[in-house]
Amino acid sequence: MQIRNREINIHRIINYSVMAFVVTFLFIHSLLDIIDQLTRATTHLETQPQIGCNGHPELCDRKYSNITHIATHDAPFVGVLPMENQNVDIPTQLDAGIRFLQAQTHRNVFGKMSLCHTSCLMKDAGLLKDYLKVIKSWLDTHPHEVVTLLLTNGDRRPISEYDAAFRQSNITHYAYNMPPGDPNRWTLDSWPTLGQLIANNTRLLVFLDRGADQIQIPYILNEFSYFWETPFDTLDPLFPSCAIDRPTGLEAYPQSVRQRMYIMNHFLDTKLHVLGSPEVPDRRDAGRTNAWGGEGGVGDHVGRCAGRWGRRPAAVLLDYFDKGDGLKAQRLLNGFA
Q1: Is 73 assigned a catalytic role?
Q2: What would the pLDDT profile of 238-294 be if each residue is shown by its tens digit?
Q3: Residue in 73, 106, 266, 301 annotated catalytic
């Protein structure tokens, strides 16, 4: 009898534990959903007018290499969790005036190319082909806009898998095909103007950080043949460095440095004081990080890098671009009030 009572008590404990877990999970899920909805409700972004090229007639005659984009770092990772870098979805980012999207790619547990933050077990924002379909739909209805897509190949997958995703999304006709030839002979002056890209309807520029093969797939460009990057994942809110972080060793070739665009990484991380202190995007200080003015702000960081390299960056990568002065910075850096 005592054994039976003990078994009944054990079953009750297990049942109550399962119920408590389910209730806690549902509560947290509901709370996160409420926070997400409140975040979206309190985010007011104006839609950029469709005039000229990328919203400005003056940009039509300006070369692609002579434009500074505010770029969304980890653009598809949207939400309120620590591993999510943006507050609003891709169409809203584009409507607001973002024209440069960066994203990580990995193979998910089913072997499909997905948008995953570090690991698909941590954050899976969906298939790459579906992400591209969203961008294609936006380009379909915005014929005077040029969009840049920078993808990271975290699992070093073959270029054919990326080509397959682009073809499945029916977006390849928008992609700019690099003319044949040695990329090392390509200079800042070799790039077309926005007006030329729009006239030719090649309004999507695609870059991949590793694994590109422009002979085989000429519309997926090797990022580091045309860009270099400053350090990323900094914990210092002053962003002290404008050094060349990637590709390594490029600084030994000053001519190559001068003829490539550069990406200024301006997103701040912070440490969570749990589970080994992982580094996560600093959502709390995003308004200050993305401010135009102030020490460590976008204007300060760009000014120091432009002073060192003699020109502005082609892209400034931000987390939570809607906080602070990201879009104001984009206007000012391109000569608009």
Answers
A1: yes
A2: 999 999 999 999 999 999 999 999 999 999 999 987 777 789 999 999 999 999 999
A3: 73
pTM: 0.88
Contact 147, 102 (CB under 8 A): no
Question: pLDDT by residue (tens digit) across 314-325?
Answer: 999 999 999 999
- The catalytic position among 56, 117, 266, 301 is 117
Q: Is 117 a catalytic residue?
A: yes
The rounded distance, in Å, linking the Cα atoms of 164 and 130 is 12
